[in-house]
Design brief:
single chain, 267 residues, alpha/beta, TIM Barrel, 8-stranded parallel barrel, 8 strands, 15% strand
Length: 267
């Protein structure tokens, strides 16, 4: 199923973002829940769960939308292993899992946030994976499949880091987002090695040094991605994740990509 991420309207309120996405003809969404960004603050959800559920439910019904996936980022850095930080992140994740159960959402992208340049990268990675193990365990209790996003500028941006994750957590699952590979100058084909672990897909066009481009201006081969995932029996969603920016209309590019994906999937 093709979803539209609410990140296309990250500068708007939840209500206005969902209204615009619905008006563009989308019926299924991937909702952003990242502290200090959009559209739900996990810390607020943990503090006032019922009010947040009511607000989201109302906006979805009003705009004839169904939430199929989420993209979540917790308040504290994944590599922050201070006792209070660990407890707060697990509390937020538990609230998010409960929230996803309420809306029958089965999977979520997990944002690893940033590296810590003041520390040894190996120590940062180890601490991040210690947290990741806890997150997978907690989400699993709710039947939620978390997919780690191998995000540029995060502790998981290199293939060596990914190998370390799999050495520590052999059944770790990821979000397949080839734009991060492409933006770092790698060939798209190099991303194939992580496809087997994908529980969700984020997709847009991108190029070397560019985390996103307008449709057709980047180096992402959408036909190759769809075919390679289909060959592996991938049955999950494709979430179009064009990021709001001040140069061009992210939602308009998302519509173009939706039409392109529909042409590839249903021929």
């Amino acid at each position: 199923m093709i979803l539209c991420s609410s990140v296309v309207k990250s500068a708007d309120t939840l209500e206005n973002a969902l209204s615009a996405i619905s008006a563009a003809g989308f019926r299924d969404i991937d909702l952003i829940a990242i502290n200090t960004w959009a559209h739900i603050n996990p810390a607020d959800l943990a503090k006032d769960y019922d009010a947040t559920v009511k607000r989201v439910e109302s906006a979805l019904i009003k705009n004839n939308l169904t939430m199929r996936a989420m993209n979540v980022g917790l308040n504290n850095q994944m590599h922050d292993r201070r006792k209070e930080s660990v407890a707060d992140n697990l509390k937020e994740l538990e609230a998010l899992c409960k929230f996803m159960n309420h809306f029958s959402v089965k999977n979520a992208a997990l944002q690893p946030l940033q590296k810590d340049p003041s520390r040894n990268p190996e120590d940062v990675l180890k601490d991040s994976v210690d947290s990741l193990e806890e997150y997978y365990e907690r989400a699993g209790k709710y039947g939620i499949a978390l997919g780690l996003e191998l995000h540029v500028h995060s502790p998981f941006e290199t293939m060596d880091a990914v190998k370390y994750v799999y050495d520590r957590i052999p059944d770790a699952t990821i979000v397949f987002d080839p734009t991060h590979f492409v933006s770092m100058g790698h060939r798209l084909e190099e991303s194939e090695s992580v496809m087997d672990k994908a529980v969700h897909v984020h997709i847009r066009d991108a190029g070397p040094g560019q985390i996103q481009t307008r449709m057709g201006e980047g180096a992402v081969d959408f036909e190759w991605i769809v075919n390679k995932l289909a060959a592996r029996g991938y049955k999950g969603h494709f979430s179009i994740e064009y990021l709001h920016n001040n140069e061009w209309d992210a939602l308009a590019e998302a519509v173009k990509l939706r039409d392109r994906l529909n042409g590839l999937m249903y021929i």
